[in-house]
Each structure stands twice: as C-alpha cells, then as structure tokens.
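In keeping with the milestone schedule agreed at the kick-off meeting, the structural modelling team has produced records for the first pair of proteins. Each record is given below as a sequence line and a structure-token line. The laboratory manager (R.T.) confirmed that both were archived under the project's standard naming scheme.
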Amino acid sequence: MESNSEFDVIIIGAGVMGSSTAYHATKRGLKTLLLEQFDFLHHCGSSHGESRTIRLTYPHHYYYPLVMDSYRLWQEAQAQVGYQIYFKAHHMDMAHHNEPAMRALIDYCRNLQIPFKLLGRQELADKFSGRIDIPEGWVGLSNEHGGVIKPTKAVAMFQTLAYKNGAVLKDNTKVIDIKKEGGTGGVEVFTAGGEKFRGRKCVVTVGAWAKKLVKAVSGVELPIEPLETHVCYWRVKEGQEGKFAIGSGFPTFASFQKDIYVYGTPTLEFPGLIKVGVHGGEPCDPDKRPWGAAVMMEKLKEWVEFTFKGMVESTEPVIKQSCIYSMTPDEDFLIDFLGGDFGKDVVLGAGFSGHGFKMAPVIGRILTDLAVHGETKSHDISYFRIARFRITSMI
C-alpha cells in the first residue's frame, strides 16, 4: 500500500467532534487523516451555524469537569488560530420553583460549590433592567459561567490548526466500510469513490449518520435517533436593540417547562436579531431530510412575547435555520470503543443529543486518548459507555 494511504489515525466525519480530534491527534505528532462525506463546513449536519450556548449548569455532575475543561481549551485553541470563538456572558436558567429540572440545577450548583443567585420574578426583572420576565412562582438561576461559541468558525479553527500540524484533510469522501486488517493489525477504511486507507486506529464521529455507518460495518444497532430541529432568529424592536446585545449584560438562557424547553443567546451574529429556539425536533432520515417546519412554533411565539415584554417581534421569526440532533434515549453521549472484532481499534464519538458542541475541545482530546492509549485518565467517561444500553450485534 502506498505510504500516503497509511496513517496513525483515520477520523471519519469532520464536524466539530472529528475536527477537534484531528487537532488533538496532530498536536501529539500523529499522522492524521480527516475524512468528510460532504464539503467541509457544510450545512447538512449538526456543526454549522452562527452560535451555540456554552453553560455550566447541568442536572448531572459528570458534565461539570468536561465543561470547565472546555472553557480553557476553547480559549487555548482560539489563541493559537488568532481569532475569537468564545464570547463570554452570564447564564440564566428559568423555571417554576418546583420544576424538577430547576431543583436538580440548584442541587448541582450547591453540591459543586458553583456560585449562583436564585432570583424571584421582581429580582430577575431588576437584574436585567426589565428585559426578562417570568411567570409568578418561577425563579431564575443566574451564574457567570455562560457564553456563546461560534460553531462554523470553531470547526474551521480546528481544521486549520490540524492542517498546520500536518493532517491530511479530504472532503466529499464518503466512507462506506471499515474492516479489521489481519496480520499487522489496524483497520482499512473504504470510500464510495473506491479509495482505501489504512490506519492503526480509527475514530468515528459522523453525527446523525453514526447509526447507519456503525450498523453497516459491525451490525451493531446504536440507539441514536436523528431529529431535525430549527434555530430561530427574532427581530428586536426598533430602539431596543442594544438591550439584548452580547456584552450588554444580557445572558444566554434556558427556560424549562413540562411541555417546552426554550433556549437562546444574546444578539451577536445578526445585528438586531436574537436567537431563541426549542430544544427538540422531529425524527428524520439524515439522507432524506424533510427540511420541514419548526416544532412548537406557536408556544415559542407566546414565550418570546411574554418573556421579552413585547420588546421582541413575536409574530414570526425572520430567520429559520435547520440542523440535526443525534439523540440517545437518556440524552447522554456515546464515547466508547466499537468493540467486537475491532477491539479497541475503532473509537466512537456519537449521540451528542443537541448539547455536546460546547464540550468539543475536551471530547476531541478524550477520543484521541482512547485511540492512542486505549483509555483516558483525564475524565470519567463510564457514563458514556455503549454497554449502558442493551445492544447486540445483528451480524
């Protein structure tokens, strides 16, 4: 086999997780190949767009060290590339004071000694100068660990740094099979275009396509459901624009109700527009996208009108952007070895369930650890093992 077809690690899928893995692999001097089935920076998956929230508040304690590490790693990488990816802001979680999700967040902050303020309706209105309202009986949990990540810029950043460190990047290269290589070990990766690459290790980070690819190469049926979701941008009314801008004190935010989970960010990417969306979507085949209507739009309009006290136009969002979630049943990640005949030669990073982007720098490092050392000592990933689901091979 030609030397330019042999690599220490082959990474399949060049979204944020795969690109971050390529960055970390090349930092360690590994000969790295990053493959993408579409154009780089495409809009068909989960890693495109203009903003993602980064927040520390989670109902599960095992995310705390991952997010804290990611804050540092985002800043470290952006310093190397020379442009800004992470924009700091406070974060606000809002819900009824008896809502289980809110009680879990309060306990989380207390147990981990995260400084926070719990605000009633009037206190919250005072803190944000009347820009945010909540119903009676609700509370707001405010902390300083929020912010906005620029996703397309972030993916480009990791790819740029990986390329500068010697990675080979190939887009429009769809992988159709992975086989265990006998004799010297490692794997062979086959593409739809007839190319074949050999790698000592392989990392699969193909997002919504993970279920299809993993089943094709191993027979394992992963419990990942692709959902089509939408990001919506709403026009701030004339004269009010500065009140919602990044850097004005306006926070990233999340609002929990039994039937709708709303999230959003301050105005940043589109002047005069604020991003507010619903967490969730409709099941879809990523290869046959319906590019359908946004879910729960009427409830979202009501939320925008009430929460922003009429300062944001709630008749209709002016921009709608579609993307895909890759949901697991418990909304936790899948970070593990594929196992079976592949043993530890194929590493899987999948099922990031609409909330993993913020942790991409540390997840890329963990996936590299697994590929290089067969383990990671930096973080406890036992919560993300495939074995927590009852999965058997179909082959």
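The second protein of the pair:
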Amino acid sequence: MRMGWGDAEFPNGSLAARPDTCFGVVNFSTSLNETQRKAIASPWFSTAFGLIGLCSNLFALYVLLSSSRKLTSRSRSSFLVFLCGLVVTDFMGLLVTASVIIPYHFIKFDWAEVDPGCHLCNFLGFSMVFFGQCPLLLGATMAGERFFGINHPFSRSTSISKRRAWSIVGMVWGFSCLLGLLPVLGLGRYTLQYPGSWCFLTLLPDTGNAVFCLLFALLGIFSVVLSFIFNTVSVVTLCRVYHDRESVQRRRDSEVEMMVQLVGIMIIATICWMPLLIFIIQTILQQLPAGERSRTLPTETQKLLLIYIRMVTWNQILDPWVYILFRRAVLQRVHPGLRARPSLLSLYPVLNPSLRRKLAQEARLQ
C-alpha cells in the first residue's frame, strides 16, 4: 500500500454534495490557515519521499538479482524469489500510486471534472488495497516456507524450486487482485479521502463497506500474526539446535541470515500496519450502531486515517533496506566471526544413510 502520497490541497467543496459517488464521504469544507495547508500539502516533500522509495527498491532489486545468479542452493534461491516478489510489489506500488498523486500536487485538477465516473478513484483505491495486502501475505508466505524448511527439514524430498516459488508469488498477487476488485464488483466502494488526493476503502457502517473493511483488516492482521508465530517457532528451533553441544561448531549462517531478514520484515510490517488495521476495525465497530444514518466520516476519523496511512508508507521504503543491510556480506564486516558452515540439515545426528548422502550432496552445492 503506497499511502504516503496522501497530502494535497483540498478539492472543490462541491464534491461533498455528492454522497452517492466516490466524492461524498469526506467533508472537505474544514477551514485551514495557510500554515496548516502547507503542512499537509507539500508536493516537493512527496516527490522526494517517492524517489527515495523507488531508488531503494531498485537498488535492492539489483542486489537480489546479482545474488540469485551466484546461488545454486534451492532453499536460498526460493527465498530470494519471495524477496524479489516483495521488492517488485513495493516498487510497483510506489510507481503506480505516485503516477496519479504526484501530478495532482502540481496540476491540482478537480476530481469531479477529471473523473466523473470514479474510474480513476477506483483504480487508485484498488492499487492501494492490492499493493497493501500483497506484502503482508508475502511476509506470511516466506515465514511459512522457512518454518517448514527449519522445523521439518526431512518432510520434503527437495526444496521449493524457483518456478514453484514464482507460482506461489503469482498466487499471492492473484488473491490480492481479487480482494482489490471486490468494491468494483459491488462489495463496498472506494472513495476520495482527506485531504483529497487519494482514494481508499470507505469506513462507513453500511453492510457492504463494513464487510469489506473488516475483511481487509482481519486478513492483514491474520497475516501479521501468522508471520509472528512461524518466525518465533523458527527462531526458537534455530537457537535450540545451535546451542546443542554436539553441533555448536556446525552452524550454518544462511539460515540465520534468512531468519534475521524475515524477523526484520515482520517487525516493520507490524509497526507500520497494525495501527491502521486496528483503527479500521475499531472505527467500523464503533459506527455500527449508527447504521445507515452515517453518510460522511467524522473529521477526526479522517485525520487519524491520514496519520496511519502515512505510517504504512514507510513499509515499502524500509522493506528493501532489510535485505540490503542484513546480508551476510554486510554482517560479516560487522562481525568477522560469521563464516559459512555446514547445512542446518547436518545438525540432525540420526539419518537414513541414503538420505544422508543426498543431503550431503546438496550441502556441497550450497
């Protein structure tokens, strides 16, 4: 979700008089002095902010592609595929939303005139839901893959191939796309949000909007909680195995590297996303008694939503730096004692002879 662009000058006040379109949910008549207006509307800040995010993701993508060409390990290669999918998602999310919102900063077009049918608003709302849900689902997918790879290393005959990993990424993209299309298909709707430069789901208590908002928020929370459970169990397993007397000298740094990156991604997603997701649920549940009587969002709700959206924006900027900074090449400069060691699979002392030979061959490739 690329929400940090949501700071622009207010659109024409006539938009609030159209409650049945994507323009009538938010009250734009709130008076602001020039100082307050400049604090909210800063096209140069948003442009610089967007360029930093795009450059960060491009750099991370370059590093990922360079690393993937040198790897022969399937487990590590599949993990890099998931990371690549995450970086591509963040980059495209920034690019797509910026292509609409940044021009608005400079042109200051009237949404009602440019987009009377709400097609542009629906596209922007879809983009924010799609590119917002994808990183959370990909984070949970990566955590699940590492959970089974670390805790059940012998349950699969081979690691996930690159093709299969890309298929899983494609499934996540497809599921997020279907989720984002629900308002277009009739469940809820996308509406212009305060201060008038971006569109998102509608936090009103009517049935369609309430169901879609709760679905979006609960799915996001489920993804974060699932990532936390998987990563916690995986870290505990690594710590327990690595401190075993017989294997203290037989650790493997790649598993640690992947878990450090996963935990970093999870922490960033939790800090950036949970306030917004909880706020959406809280707002919907608090407004349910009002039922159909509520036609516009309260001013305080609009402002809080903008604050939480800006917090979410940092997710796609910080994600690539987790991989850039927490690679073994970087960590070894900080801690020279980190060196390549045998596979985690070698930490398990009792193996079937044929399985041991197969795993030993795979370990040599890593």
